[in-house]
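tokens incoming
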């Protein structure tokens, strides 16, 4: 028996494993393509289940090489020998997906495992996860509870692409050549972290061929391993909740479902891989339209903690004038929050600075024709807060160990039901009492003190993360009009599970435009433009500050922010009239191309490290249909303006070679090209604004 799961451009095929021990991956790729049945044991020194590319399996079923499930029963029985516990079923989900379920069990231990594999004709991703249930009379500890694995061919090793970083340097690409050994990346911080994004790309070395991506949908502590066993000729890529800092325990009859591991295979380059991810991520988003991607004005950088109602309304009037669609009051609006040293947890407006509370402020903003938005950090608590004084036991804490602050704050243990209930209730009250339709949910520290004030609690990250999801899901169901922007001191918590529950994400606190360009370049390589919140600010680059010696123009800053979901975070009251008019004309331009930027197919031409680079968006209306418009946003370094490095001809891709395209704004006839010309000869960037440009071509 062979089971076939069709994807958009191919199929994923599995067979039964020997002795009913699970499933073996047989092939992945175009119909009739790539079939790589791996060598079975060639000597009596080798065990078949260790050599075969098994779908997720347990230590005890596989004994020599890596396994995704590691279990231990309370009496010490360790490992699981999984065997078929029923028929494999392949059905059709409501959304048209093909869904395979393989029931397995270890009757001696008393554990059942249902492996799930799912594909959809609309994209090329294979989703994998597992459901686990303790059928024994004793607790079972899950020392590793990973529900999926991808085995990719790598006879001559592979180049592994990671997105690493630090605060303000997120999504920096790194390449690791892997021939033998295990590469491990992850986070013990209770959030995905700035250090690594939970996604890798794998390009097998040697012949040109396919490339692969694997991503974990989990927003707490996590680990991903890429295992290259010598002479096995493949890489085994698995991931799940972190198995170093956490242990999950299943009480008798209890079960859990592991996070989804998604894998994608493309024939093509890094941008083909990016487009394959974006096609999948479109199925995670509730919408991709402007209703949840408004042009934001956020007052954080203009005021930081000095939030005063008259000043906010002055900023709001200026923001409305330049065309902002929502005005978001960031940190500093609540009682006693005049610095980052106090008040997190006390989520009531500071009546000294906002007399009358949030209602009149929101009304004032709405009278200016904008929506009203608010920043919150619901998981955080300041030691100097009424909440902490009332409930010191609510903070994450390793029993008996003094708490340590990071950014002068602790983290609430959402995994405690009463804390979850309190956080949900607080947010419901805020959203119910005031007409807030945009919520920026921040999370500004890692949970280094993960745990709880009583002993136990090895599952703190699991519980915290599940509660975070429940709160987001509950709010979305009750307040569907509220757009949620996910932030974690920048891009500290971004993954597929967050994408499925929020509308936009804040990739980084770095808004200096040249550094930002590099961060966005990495971001767009795996994540979609319709989620990429990006603001124009007055801040310099943290890293790139002195490289050119010339500050980037306002135009440059706008074109960088227009590459995703445009926002403005500058002190616009300090801008002169000419700057505000300029800003307003960019906002108008952006509105005219927003749907193409958000839903069009993305191609990155060159890199921000070069003298000049561009991003092409081809598409796309709000539903993602191809309306034949192409947007090319381009940037160059000031120094490059005077040299050949600043000239850029972009060979467009994803076009219909036989169609004709006209440069918008040009005279009919003078700037009309065939798709073939634009692909083969390319189009020279005109540098309309010196260090940047936005060229728009319409199919005629
Ligand atoms: C970190 C965020 O990333 C910033 O945008 C801002 O909201 C601050 N927190 C506020 O404390």
């Amino acid at each position: 028996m062979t089971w076939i799961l069709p994807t958009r451009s191919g199929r994923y095929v599995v067979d039964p494993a020997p002795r009913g021990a699970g499933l073996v991956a047989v092939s992945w790729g175009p119909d009739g393509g790539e079939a790589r049945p791996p060598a079975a044991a060639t000597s009596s020194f080798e065990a078949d289940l260790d050599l075969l590319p098994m779908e997720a399996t347990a230590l005890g079923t596989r004994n020599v090489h890596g396994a995704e499930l590691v279990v231990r029963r309370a009496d010490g029985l360790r490992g699981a020998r999984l065997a078929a516990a029923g028929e494999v079923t392949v059905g059709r989900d409501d959304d048209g997906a093909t869904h395979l379920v393989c029931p397995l069990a270890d009757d001696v231990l008393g554990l059942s495992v249902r492996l799930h594999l799912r594909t959809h004709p609309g994209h090329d991703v294979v989703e994998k996860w597992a459901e686990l249930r303790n059928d024994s009379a004793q607790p079972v500890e899950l020392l590793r509870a990973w529900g999926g694995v991808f085995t990719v061919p790598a006879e001559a090793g592979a180049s592994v692409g990671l997105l690493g970083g630090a605060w303000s340097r997120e999504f920096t690409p790194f390449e690791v050549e892997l021939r033998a050994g295990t590469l491990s990346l992850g986070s013990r911080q209770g959030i995905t972290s700035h250090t690594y994004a939970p996604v890798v790309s794998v390009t097998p070395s040697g012949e040109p061929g396919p490339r692969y991506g694997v991503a974990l949908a989990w927003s707490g502590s996590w680990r991903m391993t890429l295992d290259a066993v010598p002479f096995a000729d493949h890489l085994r890529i698995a991931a799940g909740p972190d198995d170093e800092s956490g242990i999950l325990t299943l009480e008798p009859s209890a079960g859990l479902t592991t996070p989804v591991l998604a894998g994608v295979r493309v024939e093509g380059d890094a941008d083909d891989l990016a487009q394959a991810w974006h096609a999948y991520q479109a199925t995670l988003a509730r919408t991709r339209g402007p209703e949840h991607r408004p042009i934001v004005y956020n007052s954080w950088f203009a005021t930081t903690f000095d939030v005063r109602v008259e000043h906010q309304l002055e900023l709001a009037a200026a923001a409305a004038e330049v065309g902002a669609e929502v005005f978001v009051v960031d940190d500093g609006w609540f009682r006693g929050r005049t610095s980052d040293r106090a008040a997190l947890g006390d989520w009531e407006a500071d009546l000294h600075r906002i007399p009358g509370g949030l209602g009149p402020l929101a009304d004032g903003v709405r009278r200016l024709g904008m929506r009203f938005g608010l920043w919150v950090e619901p998981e955080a608590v300041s030691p100097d807060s009424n909440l902490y004084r009332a409930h010191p036991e609510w903070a994450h804490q390793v029993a008996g160990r003094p708490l340590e602050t990071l950014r002068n704050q602790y983290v609430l243990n959402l995994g405690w039901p009463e804390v979850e209930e309190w956080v949900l209730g607080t947010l419901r009250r805020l959203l119910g009492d005031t007409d807030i339709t945009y919520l920026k949910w921040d999370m500004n520290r890692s949970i280094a003190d993960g745990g709880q004030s009583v002993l136990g609690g090895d599952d703190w990250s699991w519980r915290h993360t599940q509660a975070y999801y429940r709160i987001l899901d509950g709010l979305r169901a009750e307040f569907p009009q509220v757009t949620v922007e996910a932030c974690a001191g920048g891009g500290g918590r971004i993954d597929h599970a967050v994408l499925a529950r929020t509308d936009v994400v804040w990739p980084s606190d770095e808004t200096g435009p040249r550094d930002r360009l590099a961060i966005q370049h990495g971001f767009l390589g795996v994540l979609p433009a319709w989620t990429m919140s990006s603001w124009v600010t007055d801040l310099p680059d943290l890293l790139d500050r002195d490289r050119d010696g010339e500050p980037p123009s306002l135009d440059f800053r706008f074109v960088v922010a227009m590459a995703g979901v445009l926002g403005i975070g500058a002190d616009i009251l300090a801008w002169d009239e000419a700057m505000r008019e300029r800003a307003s004309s960019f906002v108008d331009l952006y509105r005219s191309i927003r749907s193409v930027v958000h839903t069009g197919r993305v191609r990155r031409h060159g890199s921000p490290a070069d003298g000049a680079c561009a991003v092409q968006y081809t598409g796309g209306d709000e539903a993602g249909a191809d309306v034949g418009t192409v947007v090319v946003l381009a940037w160059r370094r000031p120094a490059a303006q005077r040299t050949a490095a600043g000239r850029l001809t972009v060979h467009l891709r994803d076009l219909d070679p036989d169609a004709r395209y006209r440069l918008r704004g040009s005279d009919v006839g003078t700037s009309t090209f065939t798709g073939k010309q634009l692909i083969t000869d390319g189009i020279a960037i005109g540098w309309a604004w010196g260090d940047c440009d936005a060229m728009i071509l319409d199919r005629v």
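note: Residues 317 and 368 are 7 Å apart (CA to CA).
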